[in-house]
Design goal:
The protein has one helix and 14 strands. A five-stranded mixed sheet has the order 3-6-8-11-12. The protein has a five-stranded mixed sheet with strand order 5-4-7-9-10, with no helix packed on it. Strands 1-2 form a two-stranded antiparallel ribbon. The relative contact order is 0.11.
């Protein structure tokens, strides 16, 4: 039997006895490196392309969409867009359970849209914003309001929090809030 791979992150699932004496490459490359990228790695999209497809990689090194590429690996935790697209940059990722931190730092002030393969409606992140995006079973949705957006009503020295009444309240930075 040959090595199988998990459905979400593509982690190697070696069969007992299959890699006797040669397990190092499979474990290091397709478990350790994949897991490292899924927890803290960044897929960097830095070219002028306006469409990028991320696919689940199995049994080979993870790939970056990079400067001129139009494909990359979907396992990365962070999608950092720093390129210079001429229009909306649309990123298509597998329609599967996944959380991404999407950083839109495009130099041409373009929005970035992440959609699930299919396609789905997806989520659009404005230039200069960072958002947490998750798959909800049928589409990518934004979990957090853009992290770079200021929440109205708070002063620079205050920290926002969600109150029991589901409204944003503020406490002074450095206090316990009690």
């Amino acid at each position: 039997m040959t090595t199988a791979y998990t459905s979400l992150l593509g982690l190697a699932l070696p069969v007992t006895g299959e890699l006797s004496g040669t397990w190092g490459d499979t474990v290091n490359n397709y478990i350790t490196n994949y897991l490292d990228s899924a927890v803290a790695g960044a897929q960097v999209i830095s070219g002028s392309q306006t469409a990028v497809t991320l696919s689940k990689t199995t049994g080979s090194s993870l790939s970056q969409a990079g400067l001129a590429g139009i494909t990359g690996s979907s396992q990365y935790q962070i999608i950092r867009c720093t390129g210079n697209p001429a229009s909306l940059l649309t990123i298509t990722s597998p329609a599967a359970d996944k959380t991404y931190i999407v950083i839109n730092a495009t130099s041409t002030s373009q929005s970035v849209k992440i959609v699930g393969a299919g396609p789905t409606t997806g989520v659009t992140i404005a230039s200069g914003k960072t958002s947490i995006i998750v798959w909800n079973g049928s589409d990518f949705v934004e979990v957090s309001p853009s992290i770079a957006t200021n929440i109205a009503g708070g002063a620079a020295s205050q920290i926002p929090y969600q109150s029991a009444a589901n409204t944003t309240s503020f406490i002074a930075n450095g206090t316990s809030g009690q």
